[in-house]
Design brief:
This protein is α/β, with parallel strands linked by helices. Helix content is 26%, strand content 27%.
Amino acid sequence: GEQGAPPTAVILGSALGYQCLFFLAAGMPCVGYDVLPDSLVGAGMDIVNRYSLHGEHGISLEVGDARSVPLASDLSRPSLLWFNNEAWPDDLRQQVLARAAQELAPGSIVVSYGKPDEQPPAPLAVVERLQVFTSWDPAEDILLFKKT
């Protein structure tokens, strides 16, 4: 990205559409990836296109697997990576956390659901553990990791 511009938030998994809208409202462009082309990505992109929310500083929703999609728009700058991983199998959680630990720039933040005792691979470190009220759990665990 251009110097001084905010990094792009990257969302992996369901809820990518509304989460990208929140980031866009905060002035941060967003790319969301999910494996479901019709229900999540297709319907979301219909709205993005209808309201002209796309472009370099907007929203992009794409079909992709968390094991292989880009984890940041610019791997040389700190970024924000949000895993909607509450229902992910453990092997997928671990694979994507390992990629984040290797690929993201120092200072990057990773948001992860569930597993309150989860320890990320170095150089990711837990910087915050939160409990939030969600529609599926009145005390959902959220972990914030930072790459050191």
